[in-house]
Amino acid sequence: MSYILKIQKLGQLGLEFCRHAGTSGVFLLQTIFRKPRLIRFMPLLIEQIYFVGVLSLIIIALSGLFIGMVMGLQGFNILQKFGAVAQLGQLVALSVARELGPVISALLFAGRAGSALTAEIGLMQTTEQVASMEMMAVDPLWRIIAPRFWAGIISMPILSIIFSAVAIFGGFIVGVEWLGVDAGQFWSNMQASVDFRLDIVNGIIKSVVFGFVCTWIAVYQGYYTVPTASGIGRATTKTVVYSSLATLGLDFVLTAMMLGGW
Amino acid sequence: MVQSENLVEIKNLTFNRNDRCIFNNISINIPHGKIIAIMGPSGSGKTTLLRLISAQLSPHAGEILINGVNIHKLHRHALYEMRLTMGFLFQSGALFTNLSVFENVAFPFREHTKLPESMIRDLVLMQLETVGLRGARDLMPSELSGGMARRVALARALACDPKLMLYDEPFTGQDPITMGVLVKLIKHINDILGLTSIIVSHDVTETASIADYIYLLSDGQIIAQGTKDEVFANQLPFVDQFVRGSHDGVVPFHYPAVSFAEDLDI
């Protein structure tokens, strides 16, 4: 009997998963395919880019700086054993542009901007602000969700590029200014080994995908939050957990696709 | 189109939530130009009824006609057109917390019209003057008292010149002065603008003082209806207990439980 109950529970979980997948898919399509009213939409979008992107700059830049500095330090100590410290610029640039830039900025984005989006939209649900908008014949998906969604997709690659640039600068400070690697070798090896299409563009593609997924999860969790204090707490936690897992899982898939030549 | 006698007609409405029956085959008519009160104890589904009328929820059976049109059969665009003829005063006010009082009232004008800024300003000030809060235009919602927030929300709900006003517990948690102000405002606005109003409330005296007709809900059914005098004269034990606010009667003070002695093991 207990096996039957376990199978039943498994079935329930499966159905629940399908329901969420369906709801979030329809939610996404409804958000993307809204009648464009650009003149009214642009101010809302710019406001959200400020909240989602500009206010995330400090944490992204500082994290990038420290990660670049650690990469410079660790890389120098390892490469020194092989007498290859000249390759430090290449090591830092490739690691950051291909992997660390898109992935860590997405994780930071989920923690800083994603959780804020979920909490804000969730609180608007709880205090009936979304319902009041509906009653004033204003579509909340257009007015609340769409600007935040597009702001996330636009901000994420820019944040990722800033993260990578600052991280490379951090590696330069430690490697060249502190540990004495030759500046010419550092920059010329980096220039020779980093391919714009394979490394930079692929990194940007990853960050666009991560921005899309993280923002989708954040606005969906906020919009469908249980309208209680603990409901908002749970939704915020889910945003960070799901976004982080989705980022890491998708990173593996995208890397495999990119290394396999698509 | 021929205008039907009733602005709102609820026909054989059934609505369940989590296997619990909230409404069981109820029918209500709301004539044009009247103030109709829907009363009942907490949890009797009064707010749910307003959400059904405004199509925020869909019934499991029956239909709700607004001016002869089944609101739950409308597509999104037509539903939004219909909602422009409705105003909804939420219990909490539901003001946008990131916008000032002025911007809250200006919101519907900005969203639905292309009026110049100077005209929007004049219209907002006129709405705020109606509710007596023109001087509070620059305050944020967090700086307002509960009564003021509700009056600002009322000004916002009236912005698009609705034909039907839905009030969700407008008097709950208000001091006597604010309550008197709200009662006077609702009656005044209904009369001068020629609105039809539905007030959902359990504040018997205040609501009955301005209502033209009263429906009393309990256990998913309409258990009494009529004018104020008819309802107050009703001899049904529940109605009598509800309108007089007796603490014990057919609705017991205690939630059903095993005996106190048994619970304490004595």
Which structural traits does this protein have?
heterodimer; A: 262 residues; mainly alpha; 9 helices; 0% strand; B: 266 residues; alpha/beta; 6-stranded mixed β-sheet; 4-stranded antiparallel β-sheet; globular
Describe this structure in words.
- The complex is a heterodimer of chains A (262) and B (266).
- Chain A is an all-alpha fold and 262 residues long.
- Chain A contains 9 helices and no strands.
- Chain A is globular and about 65 Å long.
- Chain B is an alpha/beta fold and 266 residues long.
- Chain B has a 6-stranded mixed beta sheet with strand order 6-7-8-3-9-10, sandwiched between helices.
- In chain B, strand 9 and strand 10 (221-226) form a beta hairpin.
- Chain B starts with 5 loop residues before the first strand and ends with a helix.
- Classes of the chains: A mainly alpha (262), B alpha/beta (266).
- The A-B interface holds A 127-129, 131-132, 134-139, 143 and B 54, 56, 76, 80-81, 83-84, 86-88, 90-92, 94-97, 107-108, 111-112, 153, 156-157, 160.
